[in-house]
Amino acid sequence: MIQIQSVYINGRFEQAHGTEIADIISPLDKSVMAQMRYADEVDTHKAIKAASKALLSFRYTSKEERKAYLKAIHDEILKRLDDLIEATILEYGASQERSKWSNLLSASVFLDQISVLDKYSFEKQINESTVVMEPVGVSALFTPWNSTAGSIAVKLSAALAAGCTVILKPSEFAPRQAAIIMESIAAAGLPEGVVNMVNGRGEVISKAFMESAEVTKISFTGSTSVGTILAKQSFDTMKRVTLELGGKSANIILDDADLTKAIPMALQAAFMNNGQACIAGTRLLVPESRLLEIQKQLVIEADKLKVGNPLTDKVDIGPLASERQYSRIQEYIRIGMEEGAKLLYGGLGYPEGLEQGYYVKPTIFVGVNNQMRIAREEIFGPVLSVIPYSNEDEAIAIANDTEYGLMAFVSTGNEGKGIKMAHQLKAGRVLVNTLKHDPLAPFGGYKHSGIGRENGVYGLEGFLEVKTLIK
Ligand code: NAD
Description:
Elements: E1 3-4, E2 7-9, E3 12-13, E4 21-25, E5 32-37, H1 41-58, H2 63-79, H3 81-92, H4 96-119, E6 123-126, E7 129-135, E8 138-142, H5 148-162, E9 166-169, H6 175-187, E10 195-198, H7 202-211, E11 215-221, H8 224-234, E12 240-244, E13 250-253, H9 259-271, E14 283-287, H10 291-303, H11 323-338, E15 342-345, E16 363-366, H12 373-376, E17 383-389, H13 392-400, E18 407-411, H14 415-422, E19 429-432, E20 450-451, H15 456-461, E21 464-469
Parallel strand pairs: 1-5, 8-9, 8-11, 9-10, 11-12, 13-14, 13-18, 14-17, 16-17, 18-19
Antiparallel strand pairs: 2-3, 2-10, 4-5, 6-7, 7-21, 12-20, 15-16
Bound molecules: nicotinamide-adenine-dinucleotide.
Nicotinamide-adenine-dinucleotide is lined by residues 142-147, 169, 171-172, 202-203, 206, 221-223, 226, 229-230, 244-247, 278, 378, 380, 406, 445, 450.
């Protein structure tokens, strides 16, 4: 049985002090693919000590030194790309295309932070004062299971560029990908204690972080419910907090949109990453006048999507990540039916012939109104709700009538009109006629989708404190 490493402290992998052993189940066939011994609070306190000690010198490293470390990590991740892609498929169930894209991105964001450092001045003059940007200190980085390498890379690259030392707390449900990333970082030759990792139960590890005044920053990506708990706990020791949380993004199709482009894009926005994406466009807002035409087009395009085993087939949608995810999605499909929404596509149960893994049917509901639970709650699987609107003001009102605000999408034949609408949407990112990702532009949410922004210079500044010097 493969044993996955869960603890890296002071430049060494070591056996966890924790005694709990967890099976890691492959979503492709529900088999036990590996085991991991969970780290506990003893491991975490040890990692905090290591990061605190390393901070004494790492905070004073020059831009050139940090750039060299970032470049070395980028190079080492690329050397492990095939392993990472394989782990993302076996452990998580992502399609080959998605695995490749997301893991390549996890390498390239380290180069992005080099380009940020090239332009960034840690000292500026404001009025009569010198303003100095200093590393915030020892940082605890929490990441979710649906975007392991990417989330680690975005946080870690910014923290290191800022001169912080870190303790990674990856999701215990995606430990193989996290261990490979950690092995890549270990190979990059950073000083001991600059990057540490403890993987295990979130509540156990976070308790140790919260008890420690030495941890001065929490950067968390995950669910809104856990992010809220951590934010409240952080206040006791005044830790700085960045939260990247859940979403229920609206995708507005305007009446002048070209449906041959808008509908395939809408399905991709809803079902990307097997529907397990914080940014997924899961509420499709469509003009009443074109409802029937859009429904017809949705079925035609959904029929083209291939669900299957990403290891052996070229598929668009692989299995969900876990038994828990499978049951959750079945439950939401049931809720949608009970609420009176109508199934246009998909539904309950396994797709035919795919009972061996956590596969679900990509599902589209019509007859949805924005007060239904399937329109308000983050389902986190391939379930799309189609909501009609009668005019553009109503579309904007429906889009904004949510507790979330991570992303929004607009499809229109008139880009100017789309941009005007984007200004009225309460979301951290709005994509007009595109699904493009810009890794250097800020990413984060309004409302319950988070606090703060990541990526590029905004990401860097999330790991900096501001000091004013007056002489
Ligand atoms: P989660 O909140 O359950 O877990 C995230 C991290 O927190 C993991 O490392 C986990 O071990 C830890 N954790 C879990 N419970 C904890 C607790 N009680 N105390 C302390 N730590 C705890 O989230 P998840 O299920 O891993 O990920 C899915 C969620 O993440 C979705 O809501 C998704 O929208 C969100 N997400 C957001 C973004 C973004 O950038 N905004 C990106 C990816 C995922």
